Amino acid sequence: MKKVKGRMDESILVCVYYGPNGERLIRRGHKMASMLNCPLYILTVDPLPYDEFDAEKSGYIEKWKELAEECDAEEFILQDDEKRPVAKVIAGIAHKYNITQIVIGQSAQNRWEEITKGSFVNVLLREISSFIDIHIVALDRTIKGGEDIAYETGVRGYLLKENGEYRLCFTCQKNISYEGIFYKEIGTDFNNGLFKFVHNGKTYQVHVTEDKVIDQIKEPLNIM
Fold first, then answer.
1. Nearest-5° Cα angle at 204, 73 to 79
2. Residue 199 CB-half CA count within 13 A
3. pLDDT by residue (tens digit) across 181-198?
4. pLDDT exceeding 70 applies to what percent of the chain?
5. What is the per-residue pLDDT for 201?
6. Which InterPro entries does the annotation name (predicted)?
7. Residue 173: how many CA atoms within 13 Å on its side-chain side?
8. Do residues 208 and 214 touch, judged by C-beta distance below 8 A?
C-alpha cells in the first residue's frame, strides 16, 4: 500500500519513449516528486497493441515497470494501440490525474512518431491546461545500449518442462507449460533469443540458449 503524499496539490507526469534515456527521465521525475512530496506517474504511448511489441520494446516496458515500483510511482501507464496524437494522449492523462508538472526529453519531438512538423512542446502547450508546467530534460547522448543484439520477428512458441528444465518447441503439445512468443537472435543458427509470455496478467521474459531456458522460472505452471 502506497503512502499518502504530502502535497496532493502537485503531481508529476514523466513521459518516456524507447531508448536509453527513459531511465534518466524517470529518475529526474522521481527526484522532483521526492522534493515536493507529491505523486509521480509515468507514461509511454505506442500505436501498436502490446501483443505486437517486439522483444526490445517489451524489455523497455518491463524495465520501466520495475523502475516505477523502485521510485514509488503511483502508476506506470502504458497507452498501447493508441491512434490519437501523442500530445492529445498526454493532455488527457494529465487531466485525468490532475497533473501539474510534465517531464519530457529534449529530443521528444524527434522520437514521437506522429510529430513530424513544428515543435512538439508547442503542440503540447496548445493541448494542456495553462496551469501545467513542462520540464524539458536535456538527454545524455553519450549513453550507449548494452550488447545491441538484434532479433527476428517473433513467432509463437511453447515451453515444455523436461527433467526440471524448460525446452523451447514450436508445436503445441498436451503437456506444455507456457505459450508465448519467441524472438530469435539475428545471425545465429541455433534457437538463441528471448521468449516472452504472460502469466496471471504479468509479462515474463526469459533467455533461451540452444532451445533451453537459462533463466529460472519461479511461477507455477499455467496449465490446468
1. 50
2. 19
3. 888 887 777 888 888 888
4. 81
5. 74
6. Histidine_kinase_KdpD, Rossmann-like_a/b/a_fold
7. 14
8. yes
Alpha-carbon span 177 to 114, nearest angstrom: 40
Report the pLDDT averaged over residues 112-135: 71
The grid coordinates listed for 29 are 521525475
Give me 76's grid cell: 506506470
141: part of which helix (H) or strand (E)? none
Closest CA to 197 of 50, 60, 31: 50
Contact 127, 157 (CB under 8 A): no
**Pair 213, 195: CB distance under 8 Å:** yes
Q: Which stretches of 6-154 are assigned E, i.e. beta strand?
A: 12-15, 40-45, 75-79, 101-105, 133-137
Question: 72 with 40: CB under 8 angstroms?
Answer: yes
Residues 6+ apart with CB under 8 A from 6: 37, 38
Which pTM value belongs to this model? 0.59
The three cell numbers locating residue 66: 520495475
CA distance 75 to 11: 12
Report residue 88 as a C-alpha cell.
492529445
Give the whole-angstrom CA distance, residue 147 versus residue 185: 12
Regarding beta strands 40-45 and 12-15, do their DSSP bridges make them parallel or antiparallel, or are they unpaired?
Answer: parallel
Contacts of 113 (CB under 8 A, 6+ apart): 47, 86
Q: From CA 128, how far away is CA 137, in angstroms rounded?
A: 19
